[in-house]
Every structure is written in C-alpha cells, then in structure tokens.
Design a protein that fits this description.
Elements: H1 4-28, H2 35-46, H3 49-54, E1 56-57, E2 60-61, H4 63-76, H5 80-102, H6 108-122, H7 127-130, H8 136-153, H9 160-178, H10 187-199, H11 206-227, H12 230-244, H13 248-251, H14 256-277, H15 284-306, H16 322-340, H17 347-391, H18 397-402, H19 409-421
Antiparallel strand pairs: 1-2
Helix pairs in contact: 1-6, 1-17, 2-4, 2-19, 5-6, 5-8, 6-16, 8-9, 8-10, 8-15, 10-15, 12-14, 12-15, 15-16
C-alpha cells in the first residue's frame, strides 16, 4: 500500500522543483546568436536552402538541427527562444517516458526512485545547456536515441503486428538520431547487441558473455594504445574522466572531487556489468538500461577521442557533454531499482535513508538557487558582448574569447551587421 504522506511529499517536491526549473529556464534563455549559431545564420543568408540544410560541420551530419534552424530563421526571424522550447520539450518527453517505465507498478520504492531521477534531470545545472540553443543538437540526438532504444526494448505486445510497429518506430528514431548528430550512429552497434541479449539470452554462458564483453573492451583499449601516442592517450583519458564527472569537474574550480565521482562511477559500472551478465533472463527494463548506458558511455568515449585537444578545460562550453553521463546514471538507477525491490529494509534503515534524502533535497534547492543565479548572469554576459559587437567596439575582449563568442572579433562584427541588415534576431533591441 502506498504511503499517502510519501506520495504527497514527492508530488510537492516535483511540482515546486519543476516550477523553479521552468522559471529559471525562461529567464536564462540566450537569445543572441554566437558561435555555431552565428555561423549558421550567415550561411542561411548566403547558401541555397538545400545547401544550408544538408551541409556538414565538424564531422557531424546536422540535417535535423539545420532544418530547425531554417524554420526558426524563415518563420520566426531567428528566434532562439523557439529552439530552446523545442529542446526542452524533447527533454521533458524523455523524463515522462522514464516516469511511465518506473510506475508500471506503484510501490514506495518507485516514488523514491522517481524523486532521484527528477533531481538528476531537473537540477538547474542542466539549464547551462538547455537554455543555450547552441547545445541543442546534443539534447536532440539523445532524445531520438533514447526513443529508439525504448521502442526496441519495450514491446507493445506479443503479436507480430505489435512487434513490427515497435521495430519500425525504433528504426525511424535511429535514422533521425543519425541525421541529428554523429553519435546517433552508435545505435547501429547498440541495437544489434540488445538484439542478441533480448532474443538469445543463453547464446553465451553468463560467465562467457561477461568475459567476452571484457575481452572486447581490452582489445579495443589495446588498439587505441597502438594508434595514439602516450601524451594523446593521457589527454583522451583525462577528458573522458572529466566528462564522466560533470558537473563536478567543471564547476568547483578543481577537478579532484569530480574525478573521484568518475572513478566511483566506473567501479559501479563494473559491478553493474557483473550483475547484468549474471542474470538468467533479461526483462525490458534490463535491456533498456543496458541500451542507454552504452549510448552514454560510448558517446563520452567519442567526445574524448575527437575533442581531447579542445576541451581539457570544461568551464564554459564543455558542459554540453554532461547530457551523456545523465543517461549512464539513469540506466544505473533503473537497473539497481529492481535489485532493491528484492530486499527488505529495517525501519531504522528507512529512517536514515529518509533523513539522507531530505538533506539531499534541501541541498538541491539551495544549489539550484545559486545555479539559477549563475545561468541568468551568464545570459547577461552574452547580451553585453552582443551589444558591444553591434556597436562595432568590443572592449571586453577577454570575455569575448573566454566564452568562445566567435573566433574573430572583426568577423563577428561583420556577421552581426549582416543579420541586422536582414532583420534577424531582433538585434536592434540590443543597440546602446
């Protein structure tokens, strides 16, 4: 039987937390073009429609993000608020799906799990990326990958027609993920692996499967060692650990505490693999958790391989990659939730857990206040730099470069003038 006090407490927490999150989101949306968005906006004015939508950038196929950019520029005169709400909607759908997965059965534990997932999803730290449309593709590819793995893992029913519908939905979202960002192609590795687990759970003995998994991992590491030199390997490993430990490796002024969390996460992942491959049969939640964990883990690995020269310092824009470790933590919570369902805890242990969780909630609200203030101030920083760019006289050059507003000040001024001449982004509102 569900404890009504627990249900009331969790629902109040979700409601207040969500209102706070949406309020901070709205106040922190960056509405001036910068970086890739500034480049895309001027490309929109120069290139034909098809060239603009189908152009690649930095090893990424960005057809869907460019299509959204086109809609924003053509219909809404370049509204970044429109794009931000699109990405927020995708993010909320992911959370709603997770809620539905958890509440197939209503138990006390599931309410606690929902509250934990809410903290992971809706800390104001996430707004560091969500309210900044330049990072939208990372959320969009996660959204489509999440749905592809979800529809593959959870079948609507045993009938062939229902299985075909699920497979078709999974395939459609796989294609959309590939047309959004390069790590969408990871699904071509993840879905076949899930197929083996789902349809042939005994194709390997459990110990053999675990050994095969570890052997493949060590073989991959061996080939990586052959391909990169020692200095590059250290930078790759350092970036991998830093991204896995976000936000703590990027907001405390030191990466030490965040790296401890990263190593603990790797240890938990090892335990997870051991527990996973010891199962005799895999249910839909097991398969789904494995899918999103693999997606998050290998996405971080790709970041480490291809961005190790750019993002050793995660202070400003390296935070965009934190969306990938979110999927790892969500998958772990979802898997170990099933394990905890098998245990019976003493009333004393439950009281200690309640006290610990209440402390976390209080700490979460306090940090959200500071986090909300930070991201709102960040918006003001971008607005002030945009105002200077429009005036043609950038005095805060250090800030201009530290936030990666654009590689070159003169080029930024030229591109902004082009946008003003074409009445995009309402930039006249930022004139002094």
């Amino acid at each position: 039987m569900i404890n009504l006090k627990l249900k009331f407490f969790v629902n109040c927490f979700l409601l207040l937390g969500f209102i706070s999150f949406i309020f901070s989101f709205y106040l922190s949306i960056i509405e001036v073009p910068w970086g890739d968005i500034l480049l895309n906006s001027t490309d929109y004015l120069i290139l034909s429609n098809s060239e603009f939508i189908f152009q690649t950038y930095a090893n990424h196929i960005l057809i869907l993000p460019h299509l959204l950019d086109y809609i924003s520029l053509y219909i809404f005169n370049g509204s970044l608020k429109f794009l931000a709400f699109i990405f927020l909607g995708c993010y909320l759908i992911n959370f709603i799906i997770m809620k539905n997965i958890i509440f197939k059965k209503q138990t006390k534990l599931n309410y606690w799990v929902l509250a934990i997932l809410f903290i992971l999803f809706f800390t104001n730290y996430r707004l560091n990326n969500l309210s900044n449309s330049a990072n939208g593709a990372h959320y969009l590819v996660g959204f489509f990958s999440f749905l592809s793995i979800y529809f593959y893992s959870f079948e609507r029913g045993p009938r062939l027609k229902e299985k075909i519908i699920n497979m078709a939905a999974s395939s459609i979202f796989l294609i959309l993920a590939c047309l959004t960002f390069s790590n969408g192609f990871l699904l071509f590795l993840i879905i076949p692996f899930l197929y083996i687990i789902k349809n042939y759970p005994n194709v390997f003995g459990s110990k053999k499967l675990f050994s095969f998994f570890l052997g493949s991992s060590f073989s991959l590491i061996f080939f990586i060692i052959l391909f990169f030199n020692k200095y590059e390997l250290l930078k790759i490993f350092n970036l991998f650990i830093n991204v896995l430990g976000l936000p703590f490796t990027g907001i405390l002024g030191t990466t030490f505490f965040g790296k401890i969390i990263s190593y603990l996460t790797l240890l938990i992942l090892f335990v997870y693999l051991k527990e996973f491959f010891s199962l005799k049969k895999y249910n839909s939640e097991n398969i789904f958790s494995m899918g999103i964990i693999l997606y998050g883990f290998f996405s971080i690995l790709l970041v480490a391989f291809f961005r190790y020269d750019e993002y050793q310092n995660l202070v400003w824009h390296g935070h965009r990659y934190s969306i990938f470790n979110l999927y790892i933590y969500v998958g772990l919570v979802l898997f170990f939730k099933q394990k905890f369902n098998l245990f019976h805890f003493s009333s004393r242990s439950i009281k200690k857990f309640k006290f610990l969780f209440l402390s976390i909630v209080i700490f979460w609200f306090i940090t959200n206040l500071f986090g909300g203030k930070y991201i709102i101030n960040r918006k003001l920083v971008f607005d002030s730099i945009a105002t200077e760019v429009i005036s043609g006289n950038v005095t805060n050059k250090d800030i201009f470069h530290s936030i990666n507003f654009y590689p070159n000040i003169d080029e930024a001024i030229e591109k902004y003038q082009l946008l003003i001449d074409n009445n995009l982004y309402n930039l006249n509102n930022y004139k002094k």
